[in-house]
Design a protein that fits this description.
Length: 317
């Protein structure tokens, strides 16, 4: 009977997941969150690790719900939704960026800088987060700090208007900080939007199972920001879905070299190594995750499993 109950439980959870993903695709994020939370709570009650797929879509649904609240002017609801997402994915730089931008838009500089600073700590080459910090400092009157931020960006990306950047450097050297900040802003103004749009479209394609289309979009984004760790992580996940584990490992190694504290990329790298049969490299990557996040249940369970000679798991974008 316990065996039969286990089969029924798994079937019911599978149906709930199916309904949740359908609700997510239809942008019914409230329903998606309710169904996914039910699965997560059921797994917790059974002392079972929650699926990576469930956690991924739960975080994405919470972020999407927060964005809807924000567009509707419900800022407290948006903050609450982002914070719920952070409890599930505290190392996800995109959530910190979103909160930083929300607080900045509400002229709350202190929490904005705190979250933007956390975003770049997690992903040092997060260009959009760096740009928002620079703009926020400029708005707060710290023109020198803003100029330093803008100048450091040139070492992280090659996608900016060189003519405007050169004029900004000259203005800063001549003691004209306001003019310098204006020109730096102009130089970098087109960098984040195009790349973020491509990444967003790539994520949508990946969720719909159109991995080839997703890869094409990520490649375009990579041409804009070749040193953006998130893109390499996403490409690593795509190649893994196609069974191209060598290419997956290559991109994931690039991701963690660009952002050494990128926990999610380290998790994906551990999985990719394991799929290639390199248990030693996989275990080393899981241990790196635990060094960064000692309470990470996924890495802890996987490390124990590898040491015992088992195999299971999956990637998360």
């Amino acid at each position: 009977m316990p065996y039969l109950k286990g089969i029924i439980d798994r079937y019911c959870l599978s149906q709930f997941l199916k309904l949740a993903l359908e609700a997510f695709r239809e942008k019914n994020f409230h329903q998606a969150i309710e169904s996914l939370e039910m699965i997560r709570q059921h797994d917790a009650a059974a002392d079972r690790r929650c699926s990576d797929v469930v956690l991924f879509y739960l975080v994405e649904a919470m972020m999407s719900q927060a964005q809807l609240h924000q567009k509707g002017g419900n800022y407290s609801g948006a903050v609450a939704a982002y914070r719920r997402a952070l409890k599930l994915a505290p190392k996800y730089a995109d959530i910190h960026l979103a909160l930083g931008k929300l607080y900045a838009g509400r002229h709350q500089a202190k929490p904005a800088l705190r979250h933007l600073g956390r975003a770049v700590a997690l992903n040092p080459n997060f260009i959009e987060a760096h740009l928002n910090i620079a703009h926020l400092r400029a708005e707060g009157g710290d023109l020198g700090g803003a100029i330093r931020n803008f100048r450091s960006l040139a070492k992280r990306t090659s996608y900016f208007r060189q003519d405007a950047y050169d004029r900004a450097v000259v203005a800063a050297a001549r003691g004209k900080p306001r003019e310098a900040v204006r020109l730096f802003s102009l130089a970098f103004s087109t960098a984040p939007d195009r790349c973020e749009s491509l990444c967003a479209m790539g994520r949508d394609a990946m969720r719909s199972g159109q991995v080839g289309d997703a890869l094409n979009l990520f490649r375009q984004a990579l041409r804009i920001r070749p040193k953006y760790a998130d893109i390499h992580n996403l490409m690593g996940v795509c190649h893994s879905h196609r069974g191209e584990m060598g290419k997956s490992v290559k991109h994931l190694l690039k991701a963690v070299s660009l952002a050494p504290n990128f926990t999610r990329a380290w998790l994906n790298l551990a999985y990719a190594h394991e799929q290639r049969g390199d248990a030693r490299a996989s275990l080393a990557a899981y241990r790196r995750v635990l060094k960064l996040d000692p309470k990470n249940a996924i890495a802890s369970a996987a490390a124990r499993r590898l040491q015992a000679g088992g195999r299971r798991g999956g990637m998360t974008a």
